[in-house]
Design goal:
Number of helices: 18
Number of strands: 0
Oligomer: single chain
Length: 397
């Protein structure tokens, strides 16, 4: 465990620089950031720090502004820099449960290598730097899954309670995080029900999880019920069912559905370069380039095959990934859309870790295989960061 903690600290320290690089300059101010700052300014001016109010478009709670407000009040006077620094913190915090999830299925070497690759992903770097709350949904979702992964057949009431807490906090964030909540609810229930504890103890744990989730999220639930139309406004706007026609030159619903499926599969299953999407796409994805680098594409596809062989162990990864592609891309307008796809990015790298571990085991007789994997990871991380710096010179926000 000490080795794992040391490696986590190292990867976080290495990951700080690319997140702070020219943070006040790149990316250029993204359209959502001024809207966030207007909301934050109103909260500060009115002394209203209630975390269960609607943000500007109703899609998440003002809870996501609290880290920015704390940073702005105590450490960073520049509001935009404080907003982006909160994203930096969220991006770094996500590396901890990610490393531990990989380590649980592989070893320290593969966990370090994969976490480094994930951290330096140009797609993830962008969300770790720009002020946009989806990074908090992704981070909290990873902690939620990690806590449930660590449930054991004993008195894990504290872990169940913590899982309920993370589920509730995730609910306050970007709508896509709901996929993690649903996945966690299924996963926790399944893990508890198959345990060998007394029936009443198992039932108590399940009830405890949902009770804590509902109690902590109740202010936000009440707020949503007060104006469900506003809460669902964003999802209706981006729903493929409500798209104006012609859409991408298409008129028939069946042709539009085929377009959505093929574009989403190309972009999020095979990670082929895409110049599709609309004005939102270039803010979060480099238009005309794949979501991840070619090495990750190969590792991911191989990892999916490995995971399918042991589907019972990895079904929850498939659930999150497939749900993200369906509800975040196929059923919403203009895929590939980075803002709606970030929650599935960690799953891409989790699958990749399985094939990386397979390579490690196959060549374990060679003394320096671990060093080689780490070296390759450093090289690919550097290339991703270099590409990111180039992307920032022509990004369109």
């Amino acid at each position: 465990m000490k080795k794992s903690l040391a490696l986590i600290v190292i990867v976080i320290l290495i990951s700080i620089f690319p997140r702070l690089w020219e943070l006040n300059k790149y990316p250029p101010v993204v359209v959502d950031e001024p809207a966030y700052l207007r909301d934050i300014d109103k909260m500060v001016q009115n002394n209203n720090f209630y975390p269960a109010d609607f943000q500007w478009d109703g899609s998440q709670a003002t809870f996501v502004y609290i880290p920015t407000i704390i940073l702005n009040k105590l450490f960073i006077s520049d509001s935009l820099l404080a907003l982006r620094t909160s994203s930096v913190i969220a991006g770094l915090l996500a590396l901890i449960p990610f490393f531990l999830l990989v380590k649980r299925n592989t070893n320290d070497t593969v966990a370090f290598s994969t976490t480094l690759l994930f951290s330096f992903s140009y797609y993830f770097l962008q969300f770790s730097r720009v002020g946009w709350g989806v990074v908090w949904a992704t981070t909290l979702g990873l902690y939620l899954i990690w806590v449930i992964e660590n449930l054991k057949n004993k008195n894990d009431f504290l872990k169940v309670s913590i899982a309920g807490l993370f589920a509730a906090l995730t609910f306050y964030t970007y709508r896509a995080g709901e996929i993690y909540i649903v996945a966690a609810s299924i996963y926790l229930t399944q893990r508890i029900l198959i345990s060998k504890e007394l029936f009443m103890k198992r039932v108590t744990k399940i009830v405890l999880f949902f009770l804590i989730f509902l109690t902590i999220s109740s202010p936000w639930i009440i707020k949503i019920n007060s104006n469900p139309d506003f809460f669902n406004l964003r999802s209706r706007v981006v729903s493929i069912q409500n798209v104006d026609k012609p859409y991408q030159g298409l008129y028939k619903d069946i042709d539009i559905l085929k377009y959505q499926i093929t574009t989403s599969f190309k972009s999020w299953i095979f990670f082929l370069p895409s110049d599709k999407g609309n004005h939102e796409t270039p803010r979060y994805l480099p238009k005309g380039y794949p979501t991840v680098n070619p090495l990750i594409t190969v590792l991911f596809l191989a990892g999916v095959v490995i995971a399918l062989i042991n589907l019972k162990r990895y079904y929850i990864w498939f659930f999150i990934y497939i749900s993200g592609v369906i509800f975040g891309q196929i059923l919403t307008v203009y895929p590939p859309n980075g803002a709606r796809g970030l929650i599935i990015l960690p799953i891409v790298y989790l699958f990749s870790s399985l094939s990386l571990f397979y390579i490690y085991k196959e060549f374990s007789k060679y003394r320096f295989i671990g060093h080689i994997l780490v070296l390759i990871s450093f090289i690919m991380a550097f290339l991703d960061f270099y590409f990111y710096t180039q992307w920032m010179t022509w990004i369109k926000v």
